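It would be a great kindness if you could assist me with a short task in structural biology. A protein sequence and the C-alpha coordinates that stand for its backbone fold form the material at issue. I should value your view on which stretches of the chain appear to form regular backbone elements. The record follows directly beneath this note.
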Amino acid sequence: MAGCISGVQKRIKDMYPRAHFFHCASHRLNLVINDLNVLPEVRNCITKIKDTITFFKESAVRMNVINSSNCKLTKLCETRFVEKHKSVRQFNEKFIVIVEGLEEMSTSKHFNSKTKQRSLEILNAITTPNFVILLSIIAKYSAKFEFISTILQGVNIDLQEATKRIQSFYRL
Protein backbone atom coordinates (compact mmCIF):
# COMPACT_ATOMS: atom_id res chain seq x y z
CA MET A 1 0.00 0.00 0.00
CA ALA A 2 2.80 2.41 0.82
CA GLY A 3 4.80 1.64 -2.32
CA CYS A 4 5.99 4.78 -4.08
CA ILE A 5 6.16 2.99 -7.45
CA SER A 6 2.83 1.16 -7.75
CA GLY A 7 1.16 1.33 -4.33
CA VAL A 8 -1.88 3.29 -3.20
CA GLN A 9 0.47 6.11 -2.21
CA LYS A 10 1.64 6.44 -5.84
CA ARG A 11 -1.89 6.28 -7.24
CA ILE A 12 -3.14 9.03 -4.95
CA LYS A 13 -0.04 11.15 -5.67
CA ASP A 14 -0.70 10.77 -9.42
CA MET A 15 -4.25 12.06 -9.00
CA TYR A 16 -3.39 14.67 -6.36
CA PRO A 17 0.24 15.78 -6.74
CA ARG A 18 0.17 17.93 -3.59
CA ALA A 19 -0.92 15.01 -1.40
CA HIS A 20 1.58 13.77 1.17
CA PHE A 21 1.97 10.24 2.48
CA PHE A 22 2.25 9.55 6.21
CA HIS A 23 2.29 6.29 8.09
CA CYS A 24 -0.31 6.16 10.85
CA ALA A 25 1.00 6.88 14.36
CA SER A 26 0.81 3.22 15.37
CA HIS A 27 2.78 2.16 12.29
CA ARG A 28 5.46 4.78 12.96
CA LEU A 29 5.80 3.57 16.55
CA ASN A 30 6.15 -0.01 15.29
CA LEU A 31 8.86 1.03 12.81
CA VAL A 32 10.86 2.50 15.68
CA ILE A 33 10.35 -0.64 17.79
CA ASN A 34 11.43 -2.85 14.89
CA ASP A 35 14.73 -0.99 14.77
CA LEU A 36 15.58 -2.89 17.98
CA ASN A 37 15.71 -6.05 15.87
CA VAL A 38 19.09 -4.81 14.65
CA LEU A 39 20.45 -6.11 17.96
CA PRO A 40 21.14 -9.84 17.47
CA GLU A 41 20.11 -10.66 21.05
CA VAL A 42 16.68 -9.04 20.61
CA ARG A 43 16.18 -10.61 17.19
CA ASN A 44 17.12 -14.05 18.53
CA CYS A 45 14.83 -13.67 21.55
CA ILE A 46 11.85 -12.73 19.34
CA THR A 47 12.66 -15.64 16.99
CA LYS A 48 12.74 -18.10 19.91
CA ILE A 49 9.39 -16.80 21.18
CA LYS A 50 7.90 -17.18 17.70
CA ASP A 51 9.37 -20.69 17.27
CA THR A 52 8.05 -21.81 20.66
CA ILE A 53 4.54 -20.54 19.98
CA THR A 54 4.55 -22.13 16.52
CA PHE A 55 5.74 -25.45 18.00
CA PHE A 56 2.77 -25.54 20.36
CA LYS A 57 0.21 -24.21 17.88
CA GLU A 58 1.02 -26.69 15.10
CA SER A 59 -0.33 -29.57 17.22
CA ALA A 60 -3.56 -29.81 19.21
CA VAL A 61 -1.93 -32.45 21.43
CA ARG A 62 0.92 -30.07 22.30
CA MET A 63 -1.52 -27.23 22.96
CA ASN A 64 -3.42 -29.50 25.36
CA VAL A 65 -0.27 -29.83 27.46
CA ILE A 66 -0.36 -26.10 28.29
CA ASN A 67 -4.11 -25.48 27.91
CA SER A 68 -4.76 -27.45 31.10
CA SER A 69 -3.17 -24.45 32.88
CA ASN A 70 -5.42 -22.03 30.98
CA CYS A 71 -2.46 -20.90 28.89
CA LYS A 72 -3.46 -18.97 25.79
CA LEU A 73 -0.79 -18.04 23.29
CA THR A 74 -1.31 -15.53 20.51
CA LYS A 75 0.70 -16.13 17.36
CA LEU A 76 3.51 -13.60 17.05
CA CYS A 77 2.75 -11.67 13.88
CA GLU A 78 5.28 -9.06 12.74
CA THR A 79 2.75 -6.98 10.82
CA ARG A 80 -0.06 -6.85 13.39
CA PHE A 81 1.50 -4.55 15.94
CA VAL A 82 -0.95 -5.03 18.81
CA GLU A 83 -0.95 -8.81 18.34
CA LYS A 84 2.85 -8.89 18.40
CA HIS A 85 2.99 -7.00 21.70
CA LYS A 86 0.18 -9.11 23.12
CA SER A 87 1.97 -12.30 22.09
CA VAL A 88 5.21 -11.33 23.86
CA ARG A 89 3.31 -10.25 26.98
CA GLN A 90 1.34 -13.52 27.11
CA PHE A 91 4.48 -15.57 26.54
CA ASN A 92 6.16 -13.87 29.48
CA GLU A 93 3.10 -14.26 31.73
CA LYS A 94 2.84 -17.98 30.94
CA PHE A 95 6.59 -18.66 30.80
CA ILE A 96 6.60 -21.14 33.72
CA VAL A 97 3.66 -23.08 32.20
CA ILE A 98 5.45 -23.17 28.83
CA VAL A 99 8.69 -24.42 30.40
CA GLU A 100 6.84 -27.09 32.39
CA GLY A 101 4.99 -28.15 29.23
CA LEU A 102 8.23 -28.48 27.30
CA GLU A 103 9.80 -30.45 30.15
CA GLU A 104 6.81 -32.81 30.17
CA MET A 105 6.91 -33.31 26.39
CA SER A 106 10.66 -33.95 26.37
CA THR A 107 10.31 -36.87 28.82
CA SER A 108 6.79 -38.23 28.29
CA LYS A 109 6.13 -41.59 26.66
CA HIS A 110 3.10 -40.07 24.93
CA PHE A 111 5.20 -38.13 22.43
CA ASN A 112 7.33 -39.38 19.56
CA SER A 113 11.10 -38.96 19.51
CA LYS A 114 10.98 -36.02 17.09
CA THR A 115 8.62 -34.05 19.39
CA LYS A 116 10.71 -34.97 22.43
CA GLN A 117 13.89 -33.79 20.75
CA ARG A 118 12.38 -30.53 19.47
CA SER A 119 10.79 -29.73 22.84
CA LEU A 120 14.16 -30.27 24.55
CA GLU A 121 15.89 -28.01 22.00
CA ILE A 122 13.35 -25.24 22.59
CA LEU A 123 13.51 -25.76 26.36
CA ASN A 124 17.29 -25.37 26.33
CA ALA A 125 17.04 -22.25 24.17
CA ILE A 126 14.44 -20.43 26.28
CA THR A 127 15.86 -21.21 29.71
CA THR A 128 19.22 -19.55 29.25
CA PRO A 129 19.80 -16.55 31.55
CA ASN A 130 20.27 -14.28 28.52
CA PHE A 131 16.88 -15.24 27.07
CA VAL A 132 15.03 -14.96 30.39
CA ILE A 133 16.42 -11.47 31.08
CA LEU A 134 15.71 -10.25 27.55
CA LEU A 135 12.21 -11.72 27.66
CA SER A 136 11.37 -9.86 30.84
CA ILE A 137 12.68 -6.57 29.42
CA ILE A 138 10.94 -6.98 26.05
CA ALA A 139 7.70 -8.10 27.74
CA LYS A 140 7.68 -5.06 30.03
CA TYR A 141 7.82 -2.71 27.07
CA SER A 142 5.53 -4.85 24.92
CA ALA A 143 2.79 -4.47 27.51
CA LYS A 144 3.17 -0.69 27.31
CA PHE A 145 3.39 -0.71 23.51
CA GLU A 146 0.31 -2.93 23.30
CA PHE A 147 -1.64 -0.32 25.25
CA ILE A 148 -0.37 2.69 23.29
CA SER A 149 -0.68 0.94 19.88
CA THR A 150 -4.32 0.15 20.63
CA ILE A 151 -4.96 3.82 21.41
CA LEU A 152 -3.06 5.04 18.33
CA GLN A 153 -5.13 2.79 16.06
CA GLY A 154 -8.34 4.40 17.28
CA VAL A 155 -10.63 5.84 14.64
CA ASN A 156 -10.91 9.29 16.24
CA ILE A 157 -7.24 9.88 17.10
CA ASP A 158 -5.61 12.95 15.58
CA LEU A 159 -1.99 14.13 15.55
CA GLN A 160 -2.40 16.30 18.63
CA GLU A 161 -4.04 13.51 20.65
CA ALA A 162 -1.44 10.98 19.45
CA THR A 163 1.35 13.31 20.58
CA LYS A 164 -0.28 13.76 23.97
CA ARG A 165 -0.67 9.99 24.41
CA ILE A 166 2.93 9.29 23.42
CA GLN A 167 4.22 11.94 25.83
CA SER A 168 2.16 10.50 28.68
CA PHE A 169 3.53 7.07 27.75
CA TYR A 170 7.12 8.27 28.24
CA ARG A 171 6.27 9.46 31.74
CA LEU A 172 5.29 5.90 32.80
